[in-house]
Write a structure and sequence with these properties.
globular, 5 helices, about 140 residues, mainly alpha, three-stranded antiparallel beta sheet, 3 strands
Amino acid sequence: MAVKTAGGRLEERWREILSVHARTMCEIDRVLHPHGLGASDFEVLDLLVTEAPEEGAQCRVQNLVGRVHLSQSALSRLIARLEKDGLVERSMCAEDRRGVYVTLTRSGRDLHTEVLPLQRAALARMLGDVEDPRP
């Protein structure tokens, strides 16, 4: 019988966290796919709703980096895809030409509102939340 060390228990717990994360992301991808979104797409839309709650409000892309689990280049590609789909608009920051603003379009807000209950229900199922998953 193997004796677990503190390091072994930490490693086991870490693998468990990764497994829960992977299964949850797959479930969110599955329920959002019919709406043309993946889990990361939704996460960006959700953060934009939080960061820029009023219609037409802008959010700097730099504010999203580190809050989504994507590299800066992957986030830029995702935002470009959302823009192509008409869900966000990008604009340059007048004060800092390197800065880019992202604005959620009306279509993006509407889609977010439509799929939010699906994403929350998937989280509740996968994470064992027994509370009401509605926002």
